[in-house]
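User: Predict the structure for this protein chain, please.
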Amino acid sequence: MKNGIRPNINEMPGYVPGEQPQAGTFIKLNTNECPYLPSSRIADACMEVIQRGLNRYPDPMAGTFRKAASEVVGVPPEYIMAGNGSDDILTILTRTFVGENETLR
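Assistant: Here is the predicted structure, written as structure tokens:
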């Protein structure tokens, strides 16, 4: 084990970001960025959260979100998984279901 890192992790190639457009009139979608400002409803909701205080951690189980999402998609809340972005969700799924020496294709 090198520097305390598992060999299978230490040998993984690092992420290489794709080419970023520098000129022209592109709508940049390759990094999950939106070219438009959020709606006023989103801005108002953000301000409400800020006014309540940002000095507390959110619910780690995302109960309010999972309940609302479950009603939209018609499944029980326990079927909904929330995370801090797609990378977090993929990490959770990989750690849960992929074996140490298993290759994903």
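The two ends are 26 Å apart (CA to CA).
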